Amino acid sequence: PKVIDLASRIEKAQDPEIRQMQGWLTTWGAGMGHGSMPGMMSGADTQKLGQAKGAEFDKMWLGMMIEHHQGAVEMAKTELTKGSNADAKALARKIIDAQQAEITEMQGLLSQS
């Protein structure tokens, strides 16, 4: 239940952030690169996760999400140092704060399992 609750909260927090960033890309006439981004799961990772069940799934999901969040934090820090749009920088700060807190929570859940 704790992992499911966390996943639900992450989804609710990230959906509007994703829509905001997609809107900026459309407005700016920019596309989203499809190269490898820090913390992105590979197809093999997704397949392994899909085959896992119960506590094994929870542990695997938490580990992958920690790595994914760490990648997002790094990208957000890059926006702060290299970006010029004030709104994008504000979102980057919000992402850093939220995802670092979620990383701490996920690490705590992993240590309990």
TrEMBL record:
Q: Which domain of life is it from?
A: Bacteria
Q: Where is the DUF305 domain?
A: 1-110
Q: Extract the InterPro entries matched here.
A: DUF305_CopM-like, Ferritin-like
Instruction: Read off the Pfam families from this record.
Output: DUF305
Q: Which PANTHER family match?
A: SLL0788 PROTEIN (PTHR36933:SF1)
From the Swiss-Prot or TrEMBL record, give the protein name: DUF305 domain-containing protein
Originating organism: Amycolatopsis vancoresmycina DSM 44592
